[in-house]
Design brief:
CATH class of the largest domain: Mainly Alpha
CATH architecture of the largest domain: Orthogonal Bundle
Structural class: mainly alpha
Radius of gyration: 24 Å
Strand content: under 5%
Helix content: 55-70%
Number of strands: 0
CATH topology of the largest domain: 434 Repressor (Amino-terminal Domain)
Number of helices: 7
Number of domains: 2
């Protein structure tokens, strides 16, 4: 079911392809519905209008973290904001050693890798045409 939900969100264009995260609108509406609250009830608890809650839930307005926090606290939830390193193929030690090289050397190495990639691509194309 999780895959179908993720795929549906991707198709609708509301899915962040880098992170599997909810938008603020999805977070507010999902939490509100889980708690069985109406938009009006949430608005009263948070000290805002029902129209403001509606605009946030429909994604017409992107709330500040302060506003999002007020809505979540009004529903008895504490939002958390954190940052983690992106998954990447780069090794931090390798990146530091690369950046320690002079720009001319980095350029020479990059051009060498580019030439290698071009030769590999040509060899692959040649092998496919010979088959």
């Amino acid at each position: 079911m999780r895959i179908a939900s993720t795929l549906a969100r991707f198709i609708r264009g509301r899915f962040d392809i880098i992170f599997d995260v909810m938008t603020p609108a999805e977070l507010v509406v999902t939490t509100r519905r889980e708690l069985g609250l109406s938009q009006r009830q949430l608005a009263l608890r948070a000290g805002m209008t029902q129209a403001a809650v509606s605009r946030i839930e429909r994604g017409k307005v992107s709330p500040s973290f302060t506003t999002l926090r007020e809505l979540m606290v009004a529903m008895g939830r504490q939002p958390t904001l954190s940052a983690t390193r992106l998954p990447t193929g780069w090794d931090p030690a390798h990146m530091r050693s690369t950046l320690a090289r002079p720009p001319e050397e980095r350029l020479r190495l990059a051009l060498g890798w580019n030439r290698l990639a071009a030769r590999l691509a040509a060899a692959g194309q040649s092998a496919r045409s010979d088959a």
